[in-house]
Amino acid sequence: MNTFAAVLDTPPQTVSPVAPAPAKWSVSKVEALFQMPLMDLLDRAHQVHKENFNPNEVQRSALISIKTGGCSEDCSYCSQSARYHTATEREGLMQVEDVVKAAKEAKANGATRFCMGAAWRGPKEKQMEVVTQMIREVKALGMETCVTLGMLKEGQAEQLKEAGLDYYNHNLDTDSEFYANLITTHTHTDRLNTIDLVRRAGIKICSGGILGMGESRRNRAALVAQLANLNPPPDSVPINNLIPIPGTPLADAERLDNFEFLRTIAAARIAMPKSYVRLSAGRESMSEEFQALCFFAGANSIFYCDKLLTALNAGTNRDAALFEKLGLSFV
Ligand code: SAM
Ligand code: DTB
Ligand code: SF4
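Above: the input record for the complex with S-adenosylmethionine. Below: its predicted structure, written as tokens.
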């Protein structure tokens, strides 16, 4: 039995052998959360949130794109895939000094973690040399470090750890059963394999997904179950609302109902009580009232920067004003 066969409601998949984790959350059990009356679900999620965190504190990460566009992969949602004609302009790997300058600004602004994202299928050795230098220098500023570089090969996670990496972001993105509808150039099992390499190297896992890509409620429940059943669950769980990008296959995807998004945040909080649940992409189009509901339901982390990788974020001025109104403080 491999690591994940016991915990996913899917047939066994090929991953490297480690001790099997006990199945905790079946898809049906998570789906039952989604089916609760909303007030009961919010009440339960908030109780779990209060038992594990101060509900008035939110973690802030800044995000920067260190290499933009021209990606070989065909992820249907992404502005950076070379397969689609989008407005995103390609930019090569940034200079280390420019990244460090951005990290200093983010720190001065209040971010505690600096996330660096690259539009790669996976990093090559030459690129690893530059990225590990970025990690070293950002870490030396006293910030937590996070990178998202795509699929890793054996040994690369150890190189990142050695440079001082705290978190690796690698999203499952969607239910294993829905994955091939959106991406054909790599598989859900590839994602699990990279997460496994990262975990074995002693780096904390940041993994979540995107909602509003045409998936069903059961797919959303399955995504939450698959994340919760990782052993251990991710330390950080970004929940992205699809930002529809003109030129991509999902450009005209129907916007997910807000209450369904909220239910997913609540289900993630209940299924992963000790994880930071990040209200991620899509905040720029959410009202203040809706964001407040998401924080009540258990979201306790945000991207605190004016831009995500290529798309706009809510913006630090707006966030500071909202947090003031809600009496939320940053950690
Ligand atoms: N190439 C690496 C990878 O795929 O893991 C790292 C960068 S990739 C852009 C990081 C994450 O951004 C994806 O896993 C996905 O969850 C998110 N993302 C990309 N495009 C998005 C969009 N249009 N709306 C919401 N989230 C998006
Ligand atoms: C994550 O889950 N969301 C971030 C981060 N991890 C790397 C990325 C969001 C990207 C939104 C679309 C864009 O900016 O291109
Ligand atoms: Fe490439 Fe990542 Fe975008 Fe997929 S999500 S196309 S792997 S940058």
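Notes for the reader.
The CA atoms of residues 224 and 252 lie 25 Å apart.
Residues 1-17 have pLDDT under 50 and may be disordered.
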